[in-house]
């Protein structure tokens, strides 16, 4: 009943449903008095569409943090004349009593309420209105649905002291539910008399009593001619239970599995019990005995066991009692039992812990209702993906995504699932994954980061994101991913490794993206966050990857983005620059990143006056002689000064150093560089360089710009020749060659 992650493209129906739900006002509805959603009067929708709208709505609320739930959503389906519902699946906190109440006039055939803890006994009364049509009902984990609030009468004051007391409803039964065939009461609270509750049901076909303790199940025999499926997961069994089960001869599916960690358990499975099942339940196609301890040896001698090709023929079964089966079982649950490691198991599908196939079968079978088992199965998958190679990658990924979506708030599943995703998305599996599947991975990873501030989950999620091409593959969730990462980096106490990965991701996200993205991220506080990290590292006197990545990220986010450059200056970025330079004089990579960033700041005319101080100009001039990182530091320092010189002598508002002296040092620096230098820099646009060509105020700036272009187009012609042509560089160079003020060597290079 829950949706498996899929790899095929979405159907048109799904796309339309999704669009309508995200734009209810613009499509199906209008807003009454600015708050209540109302269906347009001319809309009539059949159950195929309405069911999908409701089920997808529940899915979206649960798995998409950006999707806003609507108070009045269920009232859209209150009138069966315009909207018909037949089969709906509701989960968790999304559903309240008034929501079911709103759709009570619908002729529901199938209603699954899974872990809907907000439902109370008011909803039991609502169920009665579906009694004449309901065929299938699940109340799994609805732990309060048999409680009503009792108001102790008497004076007002007393009511204030004890406003409501939860009282168990004793008189409700399934009287009148004449068509009900499939019923799931899993994890029903203690105190409800199951026998009385169920007695009115004439012919039950499937019953799930998971997690309920019943000493006497004799009443089940009233359906011995109709019951085909019985689930007694985690029920404490005894000899009496076994005798009753053996009488239910129509059974095709029997599940008596248990969580072997949950509680002390007296009952042990014996050879005799399995023989009894095989002899009496002749229609059995599916049996689950996971988690059971075998009291005596049910297996054939090991010599015989190891012989021949692996077979699913009952006659060759390694489990002796199953040699009596007429044909192999469709499914056999042996998870966390010793039997799953045997050679010949007479079933097409086995859940267990022996190999990848068995583990995937376990995850598939137990995800929806047994997260406690699923998390241990995913843990086994994690080991397989980490140590061996997954042979069913697609299936493994889909199952883990589904489990993470289904149990967004289950810490164990989030920890093991996010760890498994890291190994399942790494590069060796890359070719086998579609864009859609990789999108789904990113969605669940971000959900995990949002729901869990827990270190392990955060680290696993950040590491998994590193397996993607950034920024391209994260483009569709760009804002959200940045917000989450900045959130991690702004926490007061930080795990070193997470900090390092998060800064790396932030840096990658602002590299090679459009300016509007950079501006948006700047407004989220990106610049401030990076400067705070730098400040912390400075205080600790450490220059590590976090320090270098933070400066690199600032370099990227200020590229052609004046707002972010201004923020850098306003938050004392220059002070940090000088302190880092002084504290780490030998760190070449750091110097390169810092000067790259200052090059971006210097490109903004309005901000240049702030760089015009004796201290800054001296620092830039001294860095002209730097040999750090090849020519990069010297080149960037010269770039900063070239933009400042371009403002002319009247903008030079300082006495020391003299403008002519700095110009001389710039010429000397440029002449010392090797014109064929390979570069550690990436230009998306030449615009800031090209604007230094058509001017006569500063020949040295013109020369720096021409050198830069010459170097880039000769060392990387395929990349930069088209860019130079596209941005109109050719006519600018031609015009410059005719200029009287340009130096001869500049003209030579331009030619």
Automatic annotation (TrEMBL):
The keyword Nucleotide-binding appears for this protein: no
Keywords: Acetylation, Leucine-rich repeat, Repeat, Ubl conjugation pathway
Signal peptide (UniProt feature, chain positions): none
Pfam families, sorted: LRR_Zer-1, ZER1-like_2nd
Boundaries of every Protein zer-1 homolog-like C-terminal domain copy: 404-750
InterPro entries in the record: ARM-like (IPR011989), ARM-type_fold (IPR016024), Armadillo (IPR000225), LRR_dom_sf (IPR032675), LRR_Zer-1 (IPR056845), ZER1-like_C (IPR055142), Zyg-11_UBL_adapter (IPR051341)
Domain Zer-1-like leucine-rich repeats region: from-to ranges: 196-337
Gene Ontology CC: one annotated term: Cul2-RING ubiquitin ligase complex
The family this protein is said to belong to: Belongs to the zyg-11 family.
PANTHER family given in the database record: PROTEIN ZER-1 HOMOLOG, PTHR12904
Subunit structure: Interacts with the ELOC-ELOB/Elongin BC complex. Part of an E3 ubiquitin ligase complex including ZER1, CUL2 and Elongin BC.
Name of the protein: Protein zer-1 homolog
Organism field: Casuarius casuarius (Southern cassowary)
This protein's encoding gene: Zer1
């Amino acid at each position: 009943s829950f949706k498996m992650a899929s790899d095929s493209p979405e159907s048109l129906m799904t796309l339309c449903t999704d669009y309508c739900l995200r734009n209810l006002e613009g499509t199906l509805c209008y807003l009454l008095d600015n708050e209540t959603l109302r269906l347009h009067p001319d809309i009539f929708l059949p159950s195929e569409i309405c069911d999908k709208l409701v089920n997808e709505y529940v899915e979206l609320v649960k798995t998409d943090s950006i999707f806003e739930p609507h108070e009045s959503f269920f009232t859209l389906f209150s009138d069966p004349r315009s909207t018909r519902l037949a089969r709906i699946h509701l989960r968790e906190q999304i559903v309240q009593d008034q929501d079911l109440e709103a759709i009570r006039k619908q002729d529901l055939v199938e209603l699954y309420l899974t872990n809907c803890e907000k439902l109370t006994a008011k909803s039991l009364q609502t169920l009665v209105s579906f009694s004449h049509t309901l065929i299938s009902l699940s109340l799994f984990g609805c732990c309060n649905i048999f409680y009503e609030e009792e108001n102790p009468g008497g004076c007002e004051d007393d009511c204030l002291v004890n406003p409501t007391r939860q009282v168990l409803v004793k008189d409700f039964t399934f009287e009148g539910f004449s068509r009900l065939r499939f019923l799931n009461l899993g994890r029903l609270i203690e105190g409800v008399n199951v026998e009385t509750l169920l007695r009115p049901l004439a012919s039950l076909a499937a019953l799930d009593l998971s997690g309920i303790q019943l000493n006497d199940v004799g009443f089940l025999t009233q359906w011995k001619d109709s019951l085909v499926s019985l689930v007694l997961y985690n029920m404490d069994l005894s000899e009496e239970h076994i005798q009753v089960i053996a009488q239910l001869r129509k059974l095709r599916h029997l599940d008596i599995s248990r969580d072997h960690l949950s509680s002390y358990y007296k009952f042990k499975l014996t050879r005799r019990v399995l023989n009894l099942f095989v002899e009496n339940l002749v229609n059995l196609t599916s049996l689950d005995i996971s988690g059971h301890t075998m009291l005596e040896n049910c297996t054939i001698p090991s010599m015989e066991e190891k012989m021949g090709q692996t077979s699913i023929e009952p006659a060759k079964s390694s489990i002796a009692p199953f040699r009596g089966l007429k044909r192999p079982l469709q499914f056999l649950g042996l998870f966390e039992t010793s039997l799953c490691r045997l050679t010949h198991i007479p079933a097409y599908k086995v859940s267990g812990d022996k190999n990848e196939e068995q583990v995937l079968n376990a995850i598939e079978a137990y995800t929806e209702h047994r997260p406690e088992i699923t998390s241990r199965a995913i843990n086994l998958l994690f080991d397989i993906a980490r140590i061996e190679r997954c042979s069913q990658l697609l299936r493994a990924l889909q199952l883990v995504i589904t489990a993470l979506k289904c149990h967004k708030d289950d810490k164990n599943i989030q920890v093991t699932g996010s760890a498994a995703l890291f190994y399942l998305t790494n590069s060796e599996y890359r070719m086998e994954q579609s864009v859609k599947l990789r999108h789904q991975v990113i969605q669940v990873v971000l959900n995990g980061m949002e729901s869990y501030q827990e270190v392990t989950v955060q680290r696993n999620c950040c590491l998994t994101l590193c397996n993607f091409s950034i920024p391209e593959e994260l483009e569709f969730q760009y804002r959200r991913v940045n917000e989450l990462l900045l959130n991690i980096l702004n926490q007061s106490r930080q795990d070193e490794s997470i900090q390092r990965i998060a800064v790396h991701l932030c840096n990658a996200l602002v590299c090679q993206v459009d300016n509007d993205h950079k501006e948006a991220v700047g407004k989220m506080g990106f610049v401030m966050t990076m400067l705070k990290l730098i400040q912390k590292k400075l205080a600790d006197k450490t220059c590590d990857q976090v320090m270098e990545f933070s400066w690199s990220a600032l370099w990227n986010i200020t590229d052609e983005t004046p707002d972010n450059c201004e923020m850098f200056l306003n938050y004392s970025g220059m002070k940090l620059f000088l302190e880092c330079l002084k504290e780490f004089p030998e760190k070449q990579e750091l110097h390169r990143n810092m000067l790259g960033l200052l090059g971006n700041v210097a490109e903004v005319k309005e901000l240049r006056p702030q760089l015009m101080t004796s201290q800054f100009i001296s620092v830039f001039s001294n860095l002209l002689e730097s040999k750090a990182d090849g020519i990069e530091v010297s080149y960037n320092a010269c770039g900063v000064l070239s933009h400042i010189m371009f403002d002319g002598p009247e903008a030079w508002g300082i006495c020391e150093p003299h403008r002519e002296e700095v110009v001389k040092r710039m010429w000397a620096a440029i002449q010392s560089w090797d014109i064929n230098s390979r570069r550690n820099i990436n230009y998306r646009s030449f615009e800031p360089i090209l604007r230094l060509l058509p001017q006569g105020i500063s020949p040295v700036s013109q020369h720096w710009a021409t050198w830069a272009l010459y170097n880039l187009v000769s060392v990387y012609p395929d990349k930069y020749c088209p860019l130079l042509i596209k941005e109109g560089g050719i006519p600018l160079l031609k015009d410059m060659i005719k200029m009287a003020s340009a130096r001869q060597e500049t003209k030579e290079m331009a030619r």
